[in-house]
Amino acid sequence: MNRLSIILPAKNEAPALADLLPRLRAAQPEAEIIVVDDGSTDDTRRICTEVGVRCLSSPYSMGNGASIKRGARAASGEVLVFMDGDGQHDPADVARLLAKLEEGHDLVVGARDWDSQAGVGRGVANTMYNWLATRMTGHQVADLTSGFRAVRADKFREFLYLLPNGFSYPTTSTMAFFRSAYPVAYVPIKAAQRVGKSHIRPLKDGIRFLLIIFKIATLYSPLKLFVPASAVFFLLGCLNYAWTFMHDGRLTNGSTLLWSAAVIVFLIGLVSEQITALTYRRDA
Predict the structure, then answer these.
(1) Which helix (H) or strand (E) holds 4?
(2) For residue 112, what are the β-bridge partners?
(3) Using CA atoms, how far apart are residues 29 and 203, in angstroms rounded to an integer?
(4) pLDDT tens across 26-85, in order?
(5) Contact yes or no for 259/251 (Cβ under 8 A)
(6) Rounded to 5°, angle at Cα 185 from 180 and 189
(7) Residue 197 burial (CB < 10 Å; 0-12/13-18/19+)?
(8) In this structure, are strands 54-57 and 107-112 parallel, antiparallel, or unpaired?
(9) What does the pLDDT look like over 253-271, one tens digit per residue?
(10) Any residues with CB less than 8 A from the CB of 105 and at least 6 apart, and which?
């Protein structure tokens, strides 16, 4: 294994880091460990200094995704491991992710089981996200939002410009890897209850996750989104025409508008498909 960098985004996670960092150092003594302090107001920096871990501090909070990007740019390892700084992830599982990565994959994600979900609502939401992402990509997505993952640094840095500064960088990076035909694998893990209070707001961030899925779907494979939408408009136009013809014997403006919408949506999908191809174009 080439040099390994472990990156932990953290915002006011000092109690969890005090327990996690020594165990992580013991499990991976040769690894470069970087804590990205996202504007914390607690003892995060002091704890990192005491443990001998590199700490990148921000003067204010920029978001979880921004911390991931800062850590990825600063890391010197050829393999990056991302894990939460709240104590949910077991340092012993890092070796399992790396072993899977060595089998020829470019991204390995720690997939949580149902018991590891933070409540029934979060579990149902994650199940729905996984199903939608699976349909969009055509590949089995076992855990779309897991922040515990191992990845080859050069591949991951290709998509830094796509990652949002807030939550859901796992969503974006996973679907980008699928789109670029980089091998992705999943390793089942058990996630413990986090130490302290979660920074995720279920309703607001849940809607945001859903919007990001559709946003990335248009970036991943736009026609998979636009063609069904176009078909719905076309069928609605046909149904409306059949109804009005049987009752009034004529073609109404409503049917014409629905058919026009079907054509417009389909053409937008074609244009989006070309833009997607250009986005992922590689120059020799």
Answers:
(1) strand 4-10
(2) 189
(3) 40
(4) 999 999 999 999 999 999 999 999 998 999 998 899 999 999 999 999 999 999 999 988
(5) no
(6) 140
(7) exposed
(8) unpaired
(9) 899 999 999 999 999 999 9
(10) 183, 184, 185
- Judged on CB neighbours under 10 Å (0-12, 13-18, 19+), 9 is buried
Residues shown for the chain: 284
Residue (of 110, 108, 115, 114) closest to 127 by Cα position: 114
Q: How far is CA 35 from CA 99, 194, 212, 260, 276, in A?
A: 23, 17, 26, 53, 34
- Residue carrying structure tokens 């074609």: 270
> How many contiguous H segments (helices) and E segments (strands) does the chain have?
10, 7
Residues 224 and 132 sit within 8 Å (Cβ to Cβ): no
State the amino acid at position 133 in one-letter form.
A
pLDDT digits (tens, 9 = 90+) for 92-121: 999 999 999 999 999 999 998 766 565 566
pLDDT tens digit sequence for 202-258: 556 667 766 766 776 776 778 888 999 999 999 999 999 999 988 888 888 899 999
In this prediction the pTM is 0.78
List Cα–Cα distances, 34 to 21, 84, 99, 152, in angstroms. 10, 12, 21, 16
What contacts 265, CB < 8 A, 6 or more positions away?
226, 229, 230, 233
